[in-house]
Give the backbone structure.
Amino acid sequence: MFEIEGTSAPGYGKATRSLALVLPLFELDFPEVAGCYRGTINLILDRPLLVVKPDHRSQPLPWDVNYPDYLEGFDFLRIEFEAPLGTAPVRAWLFIPHRAPHRTNLNVHEVIAPKLPVKYGDRCRIRIHRAVEELPYRKIAVVV
């Protein structure tokens, strides 16, 4: 098991607007995400994390409600999520949109989970229950 802590932060609001549209489509292909809240929790991780082998990759789907022809793929990584610190961990997923503007910042990740009492600035912890590689580089420290 590998753990990384981080701080919840505001996002762009796009996931909250669009997950109601696409989460039912994700559930068809990847039913374990059924029951997740229709929004994401944005985390700024204490260490960079690069996910190169997700647990699931979606087909390109319509993502932006304003541009139904705009398609995007999404990766999911199973995690255990303690949010905020000191609460019971829940089953959750790193949610990785392929075209997200923050994708190049390996410290910024989004989580989908059941509704949780997380506020901006709360400290959180993700646990990854599979092999990871810790690299001796400053910009990429952990690879899943």
